[in-house]
Amino acid sequence: MPQEVSVQFRWLLPPEQRNIPMPRYASAQAAGMDVAAACAEDVVLQPGGIELVPSSFAAALPEGFELQVRPRSGLAVKHGITVVNAPGTVDADYRGEIKIALINLGREPFTIRRGDRIAQLVLAPVCRACLHVVELLPDSERGSGGFGHTGR
Asked: What is the tally of structural domains in the chain?
């Protein structure tokens, strides 16, 4: 059973407009919670277009955690819709509306309707780096080889 972490959730909509689901896990072992579009009107995402889609909620994460905003695989594969800054990060001290930055990498316009599942949120622990300035880095088998240096 995965560890459960308490996250405070706040709707930014009046009760009569909460006709979209809260973020939720689609299955018992899903890593990400589906998040629904809270747009007041349909949003047509043109090929190459970027839109910031509202969720109409905010959250308070415990210190030491982040919410990663990730694409939904079905939207990405079938329509070329993805999160432009994937994975996006919601920091633990952010209290504003969580919005989803989507881009259409497909060839056709794509319509986002209120309530459509548009992304997933993954709660993840955060480690902070403590940088130490040195004159030389220790050797490694890879060394400074990068970007295709292994021929694969």
From this structure: 1
The sheet carrying 65-70 orders its strands as: 24-25, 33-36, 117-125, 65-70, 88-90
What is the phi/psi pair of residue 108, to 5°?
A: -120, 150
Query: Could you tell me which residues are beta bridge partners of residue 117?
Result: 36
Q: Tell me: the pLDDT tens digits for 45-83?
A: 999 999 999 999 999 999 999 999 999 999 999 999 999
Q: What is the pTM of this model?
A: 0.89
Cis peptide before 87 (omega within 30 of 0): yes
Tokens of 32: 């990400």
Alpha helix ranges (H) inside the chain:
73-79
Closest among 128, 115, 131 to 53, alpha carbons compared: 115
Q: Which residue has the tokens 């969580």?
A: 98
How many residues does the structure list for the chain? 152
Which residues have CB under 8 Å from 59's CB, separation 6+?
A: 7, 8, 9, 10, 67, 90, 98
Tell me, yes or no, whether 118 lies in a domain: yes
In a domain, 36, yes or no: yes
CATH of the domain at 35: 2.70.40.10
For residue 48, being part of any structural domain is answered with yes
